[in-house]
UniProtKB/TrEMBL annotation:
Keywords: Oxidoreductase, Pyruvate, Thiamine pyrophosphate. The lineage of its organism: Bacteria, Bacillati, Actinomycetota, Actinomycetes, Kitasatosporales. Its cofactor is thiamine diphosphate. Pfam families: E1_dh. Residues 1-27 are annotated as: Disordered. GO terms for molecular function: magnesium ion binding; oxidoreductase activity, acting on the aldehyde or oxo group of donors, disulfide as acceptor. The keyword Magnesium does not apply. The keyword Ribosomal protein does not apply. This is Pyruvate dehydrogenase (Acetyl-transferring) E1 component subunit alpha.
Amino acid sequence: MTVMEQRGGYRPTPPPAWQPRTDPAPLLPDAEPYRVLGTPAAAKADPELLRRLYAHVVRGRRYNAQATALTKQGRLAVYPSTTGQEASEVAAALALQERDWLFPSYRDTLAAVVRGVDPVQALTLLRGDRHTGYDPYEHRVAPLCTPLATQLPHAVGLAHAARLKGDDVVALAMVGDGGTSEGDFHEALNFAAVWQAPVVFLVQNNGFAISVPLAKQTAAPSLAHKAVGYGMPGRLVDGNDAAAVHEVLGEAVDRARQGGGPTLIEAITYRIDAHTNADDATRYRAADEVETWRAHDPVVLLERELTERGLLDEDGIRAVRDDAEAMAADLRERMNQDPVLDPMDLFAHVYAEPTPQLREQRDLLRAELAAEHDDREGTHR
């Protein structure tokens, strides 16, 4: 007879269904977004970090402008701009250590570039050339995800696997406010909290899911409040304040690394440009609304803080802008070169071991290309 079979033996009893698993109070976000720039907290910010954030944000603004121009020149098929959101993009990349992983959405090419991905490679998918465009393992940046929110479960899986293996790795997953309406978002948060996976979720709330305003997506007090339903902390931060986003993300990454589990962070920002070059934003928002947000520009906020504290002068501003122009010129020159494409690459990265059907398709295409080549050669004889 086992202990469990004995009369009066131990019977584990779960708590009543109505009883909270955790105290919700510490998980709730603050009523107002956290800010650093322009507040007394800015005096404690590291001057070198502020200069670094400023340089990357200025480069990011120029990167966005150049990539948008490339769409008009036919060099990019599509570009989802992050003009106005550069602070969150930059902070996300800089908050991670080299061994950590970044999981971007299709709008987060700037974060990938700040992480170290070559700008041309970061734009390759949007150019329509081939697959990811870069080696995810080189910089620990997962492939850009065009389906909404599918990168979030991927981030949770990697983070959970890393912890099981004993690897000191944190995953940071980026998503827009529209992505929070997808099932993948909720499934990822639930798994992450139950497993206490070392993952941080950054929601860039830029006001619109294409043309749908946030108020038509959710009635929650904030997107950060959704964290409580899954048993993780929610943080609300001014997404245009690079110092604030970097601080909040840094704390969440440290917490995850130390075994504290996941955090959901909502960065309040604004999409200055249209959803993509294929979108007409004037059909669903007024110009004065956009101009109001231009007054809260992330470049201006950092530049004002640095100049008022004597940490940046005209020469420093000019040097940063010149560096951004040099980056844009290099990007423009290399993107204006027609890539050399091999049609057989269509079959090179689909399966580790090609299936019989894939091999058959590959052989058919190879035969067709050879026949076309022979026809051209015959015509020129």
